[in-house]
Each structure stands twice: as C-alpha cells, then as structure tokens.
Amino acid sequence: MQRTEPDTTIDHRYGDPGAAATPWADAQERFAAAELAWLSTVRPDGRPHVTPLLSVWLDGAPHICTGEDERKAHNLAANPHVVLTTGANALHGGLDLVVEGRAERVTDPDRLQALADAWEKKYGSEWHFDLRDGGFAGGNGLALVYRIEPTTAFGFGKAPYSQTRWRFPEA
Asked: Is the dihedral of CA 71, 72, 73, 75 positive or negative?
C-alpha cells in the first residue's frame, strides 16, 4: 500500500526554542521498534476503553490484532476510529507517539501472512500465528487483524521538548 508523505509541522508553543520537527521516518522507526502500544477505542455506549497490546508496523501503518469476542473487537465493529500510542514513560528523553486513525480489518490471505510473519519476527516464536477464517488462529480462538490507517499523528519529543504533527492525505 503506497502512501504519500504526511504534511509535517512543529508547534513551537509546546517546545524548546529552536527545536526541530521530528521526521516521519524517525517516528515510524520508533513506533515499529516499540514493544508495547496502547489502543484507545470507544464502547458502543460512548465510554472510552484503553488497553495495552502488541503491534507491528508494516507498509506505512501500525497493525493490531484482537480476539473476535474481546471488548476491542466489539468497539471497533461499532466505531472504527482509534488512537494508538507508545513512548517512553519518562519526563526527560525519548519520544512519545500518538497515531489517530481508522481501524480497517485485514482479511486478504497474503497480507495476513505478511503480518503473521512480521509478528513472529518482532516478538519471537511465542507469537506465531497460523491463518484461519480471515484472521489469526490462536490458542484462544480467532484473532481479527486491523490496519490503523493514520489520519493525524503527533510526536512529543522530550530532549529537546517538541511537538510535531503529521497530517495524512485522505486515502
């Protein structure tokens, strides 16, 4: 899936003088390397739901999976808009990342296999997935796989302090 580069801006109100915008390529690398991310969804009654999970970055976007009977899957069925975050839990140093977007279910067998391979490469054989019924077969049943199509993302640098915003063209 080919995407054009996002529009990158820095908001100098929220950073050190002279801080530069974080390049999108750097943000992607950091997100791809993160062991854990936090997914925020909205329950059908409008209440928020946040949970930690594993993610992989492939073809310009983060991907997540969740059991078909889990709260996340029910929330995504009702409202596909999400926020995925990761970063360093420290005041000084690191880069916190926030990706706002729309969760799109992945069912194509070739894409699913590429994602299953990416999960195992990143997290080891403990996270090996076989394909079944348009998702990942696991010990606890079927896991649905989603691509988070970014609409807006933010990078919060903490050495120096900075706030970068990336806006993506409509798909």
From this structure: positive
**Alpha helices, H only, the chain:** 24-33, 71-78, 109-123
Q: Report how far residue 57's alpha carbon sits from residue 92's, in angstroms, rounded to the nearest whole number.
A: 26
7-167, CATH topology level: Pnp Oxidase; Chain A (2.30.110)
Residues 63-115 pLDDT 10s: 999 999 999 999 999 999 999 999 988 899 999 999 999 999 999 999 999 99
DSSP lists the bridge partners of residue 62 as 57
pTM: 0.94
Residue 93 region, left (φ>0) first, then alpha (ψ -120 to 50), else beta? Answer: left
* Domain spans, the chain: 7-167
